[in-house]
Amino acid sequence: MAGLPNLNEDQMKLVQDLEIEMMTDMYTRMTNSCHKKCIPAKYKDSELGKGEAVCIDRCVAKYWEIHERVGRKLQSLSQQDEEAMKKMMAEQMGAK
Predict the structure, then answer these.
(1) Rounded CA gap, 57 and 40, in Å?
(2) pTM of this prediction?
């Protein structure tokens, strides 16, 4: 868990549990979304058809790409906020 400050064992466990919960939620949402989009409500065959399989592959790829983009954007915004807070604190300390 790079980038995290020194955490004690209980805090690290909490961070890990939250990450597992977030990934589980993301996987569930992706599965439901791609299933709804790519697989008809009434099954005709017991196996996926070629069109369904291609649709699912593309859907999952798009979902992951967007998930990564959003993650990078949130990380960037978080770093900007942190830098702004440090600058503001430095200015306040300099004014005293």
Answers:
(1) 16
(2) 0.66
